[in-house]
User: Which sequence fits this backbone?
């Protein structure tokens, strides 16, 4: 499920680019940062201006703003208290809608009639509600996301939710079971959680869902099944109550797994920090030594470099193409309105060796490479020169002897800029970028050398 803000470009009233389009540098994500309704804010810098921004609505949608450059780093007591009070009101207002565990159990057994109002986004027991409401069935109560009871917020700029298709759910859950996970923390992946709960008696896997969508609190038991959670600052909306329940859950794991399907517009550094924080929490609460948890991070293949730059644990990209049931482009050919010819660009990133990941072979889309000893796309040919299956995007790559690497078949080697690219490409731009990288590398080497000399002195 994808939720939270997107990185859509901002425009001024005259149509010109807004300065907020300049990339921000994250300076600090601390629990004692000023809070907005979504938890601790993120300290950021853009074009020399330092400010605190909401971790979720960085476009100012939640109304939080504090410019450090103009107002100073210390937030006044009154202003800080104002935001903390606003957060408390926001949490309590939503918490009132969460039914008791006994009521949910009775509802799932069919012992009480209830309806769900999509207008109010509220579970109700009064048929005389002012809006048209859907009467609940046991299946929709147990799996409100997979059953379609909770409408997917796919058209909203602030929240965009897309859910895995059946095959992707099978591949993920099968590989979790195959690799020995006994407890799984699903971060923003409710359909995975619902599948794991459904098969828990057979698989023995227990699951806890951490999710931003507050509607889930009306269908899942707070603490034991679901925690209201913000992945971008690793904060629990219900505070110590939820944090304690989360730590109790992970402390019982012999082999913990974390599965996350974050918003594609979210900052990779913050998602990576979230995964690292959960991993550190597990190691801290375990009474005996704990190894690294299994990680599955679902994200587009073209973010591979950024993911591994931000991640403290090396992650390997599987060739499996993740399809979503309600995404116009990232679905399978024949079901998605604008399906890509090469298939979905979304992949699994995992810290498991790819030899431990099994992919479906029944329809010929994936094959086992004997040379690499891993499952790959059927269009991903093994390159003897590179000694690996090199394709990233679902197409077949070709080896360039000059560059000594495999590239897309549509690319050609350009002698002028000394690299492979599309036949029609901006040579001068590429050459400038190459020169900029060389200059930057040279500066870094000089700085590193200077630091070594200073340490010797």
Assistant:
């Amino acid at each position: 499920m994808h939720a939270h803000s997107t990185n859509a470009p901002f425009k001024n009233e005259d149509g010109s680019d807004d300065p907020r389009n300049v990339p921000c540098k994250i300076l600090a994500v601390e629990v004692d940062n000023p809070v907005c309704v979504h938890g601790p804010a993120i300290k950021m810098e853009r074009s020399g201006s330092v400010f605190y921004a909401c971790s979720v609505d960085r476009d100012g949608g939640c109304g939080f703003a504090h410019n450090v450059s103009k107002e100073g780093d210390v937030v006044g007591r009154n202003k800080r208290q104002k935001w903390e009070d606003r957060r408390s009101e926001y949490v309590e207002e939503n918490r009132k809608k969460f039914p008791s565990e006994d009521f949910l159990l009775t509802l799932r057994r069919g012992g009480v009639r209830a309806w769900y109002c999509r207008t109010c986004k509220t579970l109700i027991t009064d048929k005389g509600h002012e809006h048209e409401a859907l009467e609940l069935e046991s299946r929709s109560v147990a799996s409100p996301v997979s059953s379609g009871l909770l409408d997917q917020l796919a058209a909203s700029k602030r929240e965009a939710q897309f859910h895995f298709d059946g095959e992707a759910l099978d591949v993920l859950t099968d590989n979790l079971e195959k690799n020995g996970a006994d407890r799984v923390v699903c971060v923003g992946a409710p359909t995975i959680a619902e599948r794991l709960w459904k098969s828990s008696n057979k698989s023995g896997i227990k699951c806890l869902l951490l999710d931003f969508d507050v509607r889930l609190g009306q269908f899942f038991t707070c603490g034991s099944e679901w925690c209201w959670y913000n992945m971008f600052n690793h904060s629990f909306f219900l505070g110590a109550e939820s944090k304690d329940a989360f730590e109790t859950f992970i402390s019982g794991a012999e082999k913990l797994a974390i599965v996350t399907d974050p918003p594609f517009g979210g900052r990779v550094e913050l998602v990576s920090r979230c995964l690292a924080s959960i991993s550190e929490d597990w190691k801290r609460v375990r009474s005996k030594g704990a190894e690294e948890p299994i990680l599955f991070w679902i994200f587009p293949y073209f973010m591979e470099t950024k993911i591994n730059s931000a991640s403290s644990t090396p992650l390997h990209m599987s060739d499996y193409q993740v399809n979503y049931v309600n995404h116009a482009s990232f679905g399978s050919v024949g079901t998605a309105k604008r399906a890509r010819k090469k298939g979905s660009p979304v992949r699994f990133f995992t810290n498991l060796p790819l030899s431990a990941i099994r992919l479906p072979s029944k329809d010929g889309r994936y094959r086992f490479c004997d040379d690499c000893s891993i499952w790959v796309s059927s269009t991903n040919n093994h390159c003897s020169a590179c000694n690996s299956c090199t394709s990233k995007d679902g197409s077949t790559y070709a080896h360039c002897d000059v560059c000594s690497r495999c590239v897309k078949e549509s690319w050609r080697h350009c002698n002028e800029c000394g690299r492979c690219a599309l036949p029609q490409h901006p040579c001068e731009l590429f050459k400038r970028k190459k020169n900029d990288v060389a200059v930057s590398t040279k500066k870094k080497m000089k700085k590193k050398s200077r630091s070594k000399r200073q340490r010797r002195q």
In short: The CA atoms of residues 319 and 421 lie 23 Å apart. The first helix runs from residue 68 to 71.
